């Protein structure tokens, strides 16, 4: 049977007027509430208020308006059940064939700074989820829409099927609704279930399957991606993504967002192996990053915080690269990169800036661990007051330390970075002892033909002994930035003073396990 009556009640009014107009042109009667009804009337459409439909007024500042037998009876009664139809007729309950509801913006409300408990509670939707669930339960007869992106599909279905929608399509929409309402309830329980110390007394997550990944860490391991990764990153070309690709993309994006100046980073297995900056020419920034390590970028990830230019694209295309990430691409750059069909080209969307603030979720035996994301390089304010050595750093050393500190934050611990103010020179990552990371960074710099004299060294965590710093002094470093906090800090400071090295304690650790 063609859809004859629709109930529309939405907070997000994106595309609503056009959708309702097309429904009206298809002969659908429109029911609505509050602000949605006003928006439809402002668009010149005939609308019946739900209060008129039910014969009951909206109560308690709108808290009760659709919680009525005539609404839920119109949604839930079976169209092929004689007893249901008789009861509907006896009680004057006409069918409602289409429900269009999106919920009060609870998630957006609680994400605001300083949100009050009262504001949160008033944004808990009751009638909306109730209608969505009633309509979804009866998807055999009722079409239910909670995502504005589905409006065109509904109209297409109705045009193709004589004003009705197919059972398969209604089923897909119903599944989408139950996922949405579960996410909504999870957001509410997570917010209200916070303990006094700020942790969550419970944690619930419900995410849709987004895509099957090529494989996990290894080809014999199956892997799948859930959530809205595509909202954060758009894949413009290339092979399907794997589990490790996703990890690399996240690590690269996190790194590049710590820099404001035009910057290019090269990563391998989530570790930076070169970072370079240049205010005039991205090709020079690339060259600085690439010169840090000419071997590791093979099959690696390249990330840029500016639209990728044709010049950089031509240079990059000369080596084998797995993934490139940028906020945008010049058309000429895309034309160059399209010749490498397997190369994954990713566009970082603005949505990732918000997603970056979300907590880190990791599985563990029997459950999950939740951790605040380490999204800001800490300890860089008032560096002049954090000097612990006799000699303060020069202005150039200070700039280099700020740069190195932002890089070392993204290197797996134990992490050591040698750098100038606009480029990395040597990186040591993931070693069991900090002195080994320092020695590896020195060795890598020598392999690349880079001179460490006059460089600065950054350590993601404290030097437990003076030997790690001594390796840096012997390599030619003249300044050091580290968190401090070791029982032997004084020994490390004395070693720095004996060599005339300037050192800053940030007071913050950026350990990455």
Q: Which short descriptors sum up this protein?
A:
513 residues; six-stranded mixed sheet; alpha/beta; five-stranded parallel sheet; elongated
Secondary-structure topology with pairs:
Layout (H helix, E strand, L loop, with lengths): L4 E6 L5 H10 L3 E4 L1 H9 L5 E2 H5 L14 H8 L5 H9 L7 E5 L3 H5 L6 H6 L4 H11 L5 E3 L5 H10 L6 H26 L16 E4 L11 E3 L2 H4 E5 L5 H14 L6 E6 L2 E7 L4 H11 L7 E5 L5 H7 L4 E6 L4 H7 L6 E5 L2 H5 L4 E5 L2 E5 L23 H14 L7 E5 L2 E6 L5 H14 L8 E4 L7 H9 L3 E4 L6 H11 L2 E4 L8
Parallel strand pairs: 1-2, 1-4, 2-3, 4-5, 11-12, 12-13, 18-19, 19-20
Antiparallel strand pairs: 6-7, 8-13, 9-10, 9-11, 14-15, 16-17, 16-18
Report on this model:
- By secondary structure, the protein is of the alpha/beta class.
- The protein has 20 helices and 20 strands.
- A hairpin with a 2-residue loop joins strand 14 and strand 15.
Shape: elongated
Number of helices: 20
CA-CA gap between termini: 60 Å
Runs in which pLDDT lies below 50 for 5 or more consecutive residues are: none
Mean pLDDT: 91
- Side by side, the strands of the main sheet go 8-13-12-11-9-10
Q: How many E-type strands?
A: 20
Keywords: Hydrolase, Multifunctional enzyme, Purine biosynthesis, Transferase
Catalytic activity: (6R)-10-formyltetrahydrofolate + 5-amino-1-(5-phospho-beta-D-ribosyl)imidazole-4-carboxamide = 5-formamido-1-(5-phospho-D-ribosyl)imidazole-4-carboxamide + (6S)-5,6,7,8-tetrahydrofolate; IMP + H2O = 5-formamido-1-(5-phospho-D-ribosyl)imidazole-4-carboxamide
EC number: 2.1.2.3, 3.5.4.10
Protein name: Bifunctional purine biosynthesis protein PurH
């Amino acid at each position: 049977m063609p859809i004859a009556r629709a109930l529309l009640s939405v907070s997000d009014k994106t595309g609503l007027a056009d959708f309702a107009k097309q429904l009206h042109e298809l002969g659908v009667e429109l029911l609505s509430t509050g602000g949605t009804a006003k928006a439809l009337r402002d668009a010149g459409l005939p609308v019946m208020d739900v209060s008129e439909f039910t014969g009951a007024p909206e109560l308690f500042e709108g808290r009760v308006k659709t919680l009525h037998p005539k609404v839920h009876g119109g949604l839930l009664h079976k169209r092929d059940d004689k007893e249901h139809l008789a009861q509907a007729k006896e009680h004057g309950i006409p069918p409602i064939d289409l429900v269009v509801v999106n919920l009060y913006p609870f998630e957006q409300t609680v994400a605001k700074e300083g949100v009050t408990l009262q504001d949160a509670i008033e944004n808990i939707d009751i009638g909306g989820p109730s209608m969505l669930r009633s309509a979804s339960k009866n998807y055999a007869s009722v079409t239910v829409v909670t995502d504005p992106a589905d409006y065109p599909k509904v109209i297409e279905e109705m045009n193709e099927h004589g004003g009705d929608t197919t059972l398969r399509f209604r089923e897909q929409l119903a599944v989408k609704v139950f996922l949405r309402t579960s996410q909504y309830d999870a957001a509410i329980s997570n917010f209200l279930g916070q303990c006094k110390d700020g942790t969550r007394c419970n944690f619930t997550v419900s995410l849709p399957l987004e895509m099957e990944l090529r494989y996990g860490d290894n080809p014999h391991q199956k892997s799948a991606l859930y959530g809205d990764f595509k909202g954060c990153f758009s894949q413009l070309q290339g092979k399907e993504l794997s589990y490790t690709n996703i990890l690399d993309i996240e690590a690269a994006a996190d790194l590049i967002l710590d820099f404001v100046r035009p910057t290019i980073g090269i990563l391998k297995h989530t570790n930076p192996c070169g970072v370079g900056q240049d205010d005039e020419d991205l090709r020079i920034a690339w060259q600085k990053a690439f010169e840090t390590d000419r071997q590791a970028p093979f099959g690696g990830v390249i990330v840029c915080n500016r639209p990728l230019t044709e010049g950089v694209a031509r240079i990059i295309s000369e080596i084998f690269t797995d993934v490139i990430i940028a906020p945008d691409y010049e058309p000429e750059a895309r034309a160059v990169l399209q010749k490498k069909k397997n190369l994954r080209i990713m566009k970082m969307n603005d949505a990732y800036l918000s997603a970056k603030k979300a907590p880190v979720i990791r599985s563990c035996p029997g459950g999950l661990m939740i951790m605040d994301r380490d999204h800001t390089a800490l300890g860089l304010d008032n560096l002049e007051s954090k000097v612990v050595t006799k000699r303060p750093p020069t202005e150039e050393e200070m700039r280099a330390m700020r740069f190195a500190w932002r890089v070392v934050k993204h290197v797996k611990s134990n992490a050591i970075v040698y750098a100038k103010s606009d480029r990395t020179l040597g990186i040591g990552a993931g070693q069991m002892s900090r002195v080994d990371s320092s020695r590896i960074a020195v060795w890598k710099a020598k392999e690349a033909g880079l001179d460490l004299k006059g460089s600065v060294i950054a350590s993601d965590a404290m030097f437990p002994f003076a030997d790690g710093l001594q390796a840096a002094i012997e390599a030619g470093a003249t300044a050091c930035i580290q968190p401090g906090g070791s029982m032997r800090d004084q020994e490390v400071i004395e070693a720095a003073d004996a060599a005339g090295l300037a050192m800053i304690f940030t007071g913050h650790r950026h350990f990455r396990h």
